Amino acid sequence: MDDVSDSARSRFADQNQGHRERLRERVRLGGFDPLPDYELLELQLFRTFPRGDVKPAARALLARFGSFGGVLGASVDELKTVPGIGLNAAMDLKLLHEAALRLGRESISKRPVISSWSALLGYVRVALANETREQFRVLFLDKKNQLIVDERMNQGTVDHAPVYPREVMRRALELSASALILVHNHPSGDPTPSGSDIDMTRQIIEAGRSLKIAIHDHLVVGREGVASFKALGLI
Fold this sequence. Notes:
By secondary structure, the protein is an alpha+beta fold. It has two domains: 2-99, DNA polymerase, domain 1 (Orthogonal Bundle); 113-228, Cytidine Deaminase, domain 2 (3-Layer(aba) Sandwich), CATH 3.40.140.10. It is built from nine helices and five strands; from the N terminus they run H-H-H-H-H-H-H-E-E-H-E-H-E-E. It has a five-stranded mixed sheet with strand order 2-1-3-4-5, sandwiched between helices. Helix 9 (195-209) links the parallel strand 3 and strand 4 (214-222). The longest helix has 29 residues, at 2-30. The chain is elongated, with a radius of gyration of 22 Å. The termini are far apart.
């Protein structure tokens, strides 16, 4: 029985190795774009697990979090709830997310933010679209509308993150910011601004007016897209 079992294990290992080589060859010849999400995840998991079948884990990740972006946006603890995903695999996946964030931040940090709007929208979607708790962030801009820093001011529950206009303005003064872009997410997925979002934005605009700190926009991020207060005529 042991000989049969060892033989079966050997054949299974050979099949897995063949699958890995074929997948890598497809990427070499055709690039990453044609691959479905689960195969992209497989390629990443190959690096964490040198041997074995990682397809079940890749599919389980997508089933649990709904999309490739949802997988990368999940926390380490959330990722570890998926069968086959331990700390090392979770950290490797979060590394991909951090790399995407830094690339996005770099694309908006070297020129006026308002002239690189599509890059900004891409960045905030990567940062917030798949967050499971509401988060309020502020992009602090200098006189040339270049990014000084993107800071998380608060994180709350699934549908509320408390915001204090005085704290936002205090931080703006500390950074010598001339303008702000407000950003928060709706974990429900729908980026439509709520009544409380509108009221809070008006309070921050009023707090900034006496300090000559402009509010260029308030972006609400959800899995379904990004809503701009300015585009909606709310600012």
